[in-house]
Amino acid sequence: MNLLALAVILVLVEVGLFLIVSLQRRSFPWLITKRDELPTFDSRALQKFMDYSFDPHLGWVRRPDSSGIENGQKGPITFHIDSVGSRANTFEKSPPVIAAFGDSYAFCRQVEDDETWEAQLSRQEGFGVLNFGVGNYGVDQALLRYEGMTLPDTVRVVVMGFVPETICRIQSYWKHYLEFGNTFAFKPRFIIDSEGRLTLLENLVRSAEDFAIFHEKLSEIREADGFYEKKFRSHQFRFPYIFSLMRNPLKQSMLISAVALRGVWRALGISSQRMENIPFTLVMKNNLRDAYQLYSDSKSTKLLSAILIRFQEEAQRRGHIPLVVVMPQLLDLKLNKNKVAPYQGYFSELARQLSVLDLTEKFINTGFEKLYINDQYGGHLSVDGNRLVAEEISTWLKFKRESVI
């Protein structure tokens, strides 16, 4: 093959890749290009976010006295937020004794208000359980929410519940660099400073005006974000696209193929929920594998430990008993069948310093498929899964009974 023929082939491949990525990114924002360095905010979507979710300190939070509906596997799921910002719990017939913080596994996405593990625990124990979980939170945001709240005097136990992937979320300053396309999600984060202290970097986007001029803050955001260089730039398609593909050839090729196959099935009118979920499921699997690598990184585990130890110290200062609950996603268990998950050793070691319930083994031994709703977000807990969480916390409470009640 002469040089001219090779050059023609390379040009054709480059043009083909450019056209494919340009077409697919319209319906799948996880294929990112140079344009995603400075995304344009949809004004209506941004206004809705500002009205219903935005928080200048935490990034986002559910508004008190609000409600919402999301698509569940078997139909619409309704949630209600009460006057104090807790997810509603009709089983609360006495003052609250437990307050839960964390991510969507604490909030209990995909189940109704009375099916959350907090509601089921409240029914089992006969006292109130507050649910301050927020979707897509890292433990950093959950800790800050706890620190910023005045809880009822009756609260004795505080639970921090989250998925193992939180080790990624705590290194994110703008979620767009970790979860491509999540452009409204600016957040605070902690770092370990040069003197070994846990230091808070405040959220830099605190108002509608800040969203309008966010590009002026990008250099500071990029420097502080743990994923701009090692993930966002690594996965970004930019000229020449061939070189971009070769930075992550397997991941990018599988993703492009999955989106293309989904498009063919749509065109034929035979698409299914499983087919629709395949591209994002690939993304979720890659995200979890990235998280597992961080559990072998001393800087990452040191940061996570510092945040959780600060949670314990804050709880003790306020006269609360702290409990950390680790709830694996369905994909966590599928990816680690018949082997120890990479995060389990870390949490086993952490349990020497504070109370930790890592529910991974319990879920595996119970037959985990029925414990989850197989959604595209890694698999949230079903009613049965939430019941098991409530039972495990109830068992833990038996050893704390005298100090709790």
Give an account of the 3D structure.
The chain contains 18 helices and 13 strands. The protein has 405 residues and is of the alpha/beta class. The chain has a single domain, classed as Rossmann fold (3-Layer(aba) Sandwich), CATH 3.40.50.1110. It has a 5-stranded parallel beta sheet with strand order 6-5-7-10-11, with helices on both faces. The longest helix has 22 residues. The protein is globular, with a radius of gyration of 22 Å. The mean pLDDT is 94.
Number of helices: 18
Cα shape: globular
Q: How helical, in percent, are the residues?
A: 40-55%
Q: Which regions have little confidence, pLDDT < 50, spanning 5+ residues?
A: none
Widest β-sheet, arrangement of strands:
6-5-7-10-11
Spell out the CATH superfamily.
SGNH hydrolase
CATH C-level:
Alpha Beta
Task: Show the helix and strand layout.
Layout: H1 3-24, H2 43-52, E1 54-55, E2 59-60, E3 66-72, E4 75-81, E5 96-102, H3 104-107, H4 117-125, E6 128-133, H5 139-147, E7 157-162, H6 166-169, E8 189-192, E9 198-201, H7 208-212, H8 218-224, H9 228-235, H10 241-247, H11 249-268, H12 273-294, H13 298-317, E10 321-326, H14 330-335, H15 344-350, E11 356-358, H16 360-366, E12 372-373, E13 380-381, H17 383-398, H18 401-404
Parallel strand pairs: 5-6, 5-7, 7-10, 10-11
Antiparallel strand pairs: 1-2, 3-4, 8-9, 12-13
